[in-house]
Design a protein that fits this description.
Strand order of the largest sheet: 1-2-3-5-4
Number of strands: 10
Structural class: alpha+beta
Strand content: 15-25%
CATH superfamily of the largest domain: Aminoglycoside phosphotransferase (APH), C-terminal lobe
CATH class of the largest domain: Alpha Beta
CATH topology of the largest domain: Aminoglycoside 3'-phosphotransferase, Chain: A, domain 2
Order of helices and strands: EEEHEEEHHHHEEEEHHHH
Distance between the termini: 55 Å
Number of helices: 9
Helix content: 40-55%
Shape: globular
Largest sheet: 5 strands, antiparallel
Length: 287
C-alpha cells in the first residue's frame, strides 16, 4: 500500500494523502489498537446516520502502525481560514472590516453545523455522561469530595439522546465549498447538546488575566482583533444557535465543570492541568 504526502500531525497519529480522494490516519506505534478501533467504529456508526462525518472505508496496518482509510474533505479548517485571511490583510488584499465579517460568519457557521448534528437522535450509542463519569473516576488530580460533587452535578443535568461531536474546536471544523463539516469524531456520543455548546463557550470565554493568553507566534493583527472582539464571540454563537433551534439556551456553567475534568485527561502540560483544577474549584464554589 502506497501512501502520499504527510498532511497532518496530531498527538497520537499522523494523516497522509491516499488515492481516489481519500486519506489514511496512522496511529503512532505506541498507541493501542483498541484506540483506533474505538474511533473507527464511532465514525462508521456516524456514517449510518448521514452525519457531517467523513466516510470510513477499511482498517489498515503499515510498518507495524495501525490506521484506517477515510474520505478526504477538500477544504480548509477554520484555523487555516483565519490565518489565510490574516495574510490577506498583511498583503493589502483584505480590509479588517471584511476580516471581521468573515470571522463572525464562521462563528455562525459553527453554530449551524453543531445544530444540524444535534438534531439527530440515536437511542443507543456511546453516552457522553458515561464517558464523563469514567474520566472523573480515572483522574488522580481531584480529591474524592470534588469527584462526588461533580458526579452529583452530572446526574442532576437533563439527559438527551442527541448526537454530540465532543470537541468543536476550529481545527475540527472544515469549510468545503462553503459548507461546514466536522472531523475527528473520537469524542462523539449521545447526550445533552449543551455539552458541545458549553465546550465552545468555554473555549471563547475571555481569560480573567489577558497575560495568561499565549500569543507567541500569533500575528499582531489577530491579537488586536482578539482583544477588541473576544467578548462578542459567544453572544453571536449563542444567538445563532437560539435562532436555529427556536429555544432558549440555559446557563452553560454546570456543563463546563464536567467538561473541564475531561480536559484533565487530555495531552496537556502539568501547568495547564493545574490551572484547570483551580478553575474547577472556583466554578464549584459558585454553584
Amino acid at each position: 500500500m502506497k501512501i502520499g504526502k504527510l498532511i497532518g500531525i496530531g498527538a497520537t497519529a499522523e494523516v497522509y494523502d491516499y488515492e481516489d480522494n481519500k486519506i489514511i490516519k496512522l496511529y503512532n506505534a505506541d498507541q493501542p489498537e483498541s484506540s483506533l478501533q474505538w474511533e473507527y467504529n464511532k465514525m462508521k456508526y456516524a456514517n449510518q446516520y448521514n452525519l457531517s462525518c467523513p466516510k470510513v472505508y477499511e482498517l489498515v496496518e503499515i510498518d507495524g502502525r495501525h490506521g484506517y482509510i477515510m474520505e478526504k474533505y477538500n477544504g480548509i479548517n477554520l484555523n487555516e481560514k483565519i490565518m489565510n485571511d490574516v495574510k490577506r490583510i498583511a498583503s493589502g488584499e483584505m480590509s479588517i472590516e471584511t476580516f471581521s465579517t468573515n470571522y463572525f460568519n464562521s462563528v455562525k457557521g459553527t453554530a449551524r453545523v453543531l445544530y444540524e448534528v444535534h438534531k439527530v437522535k440515536i437511542p443507543e450509542w456511546h453516552k457522553i455522561n458515561d464517558q464523563l463519569l469514567w474520566d472523573i473516576n480515572e483522574t488522580d488530580l481531584l480529591d474524592q469530595e470534588m469527584k462526588m460533587r461533580i458526579i452529583d452535578l452530572i446526574e442532576s443535568l437533563p439527559e438527551d439522546t442527541s448526537v454530540c461531536h465532543g470537541d468543536p474546536n476550529p481545527n475540527n471544523i472544515m469549510i468545503c465549498d462553503g459548507e461546514y463539516k466536522l472531523i475527528d469524531w473520537v469524542n462523539a456520543g449521545i447526550g445533552n447538546p449543551m455539552y458541545d455548546i458549553a465546550d465552545y463557550v468555554w473555549m471563547n470565554t475571555p481569560k480573567k488575566d489577558i497575560k495568561e493568553v499565549d500569543f507567541e507566534g500569533v500575528p499582531q493583527v489577530l491579537i488586536d482583533f482578539y482583544l477588541q472582539n473576544i467578548d462578542a464571540v459567544n453572544p453571536v454563537f449563542l444567538n445563532e444557535y437560539k435562532r436555529l433551534s427556536g429555544k432558549d439556551i440555559p446557563s452553560c456553567e454546570p456543563y463546563i465543570i464536567p467538561l473541564l475534568v475531561k480536559k484533565l485527561r487530555s495531552n496537556r502540560t502539568v501547568e495547564e492541568k493545574s490551572k484547570i483544577v483551580v478553575e474547577i474549584k472556583e466554578r464549584l464554589s459558585r454553584l
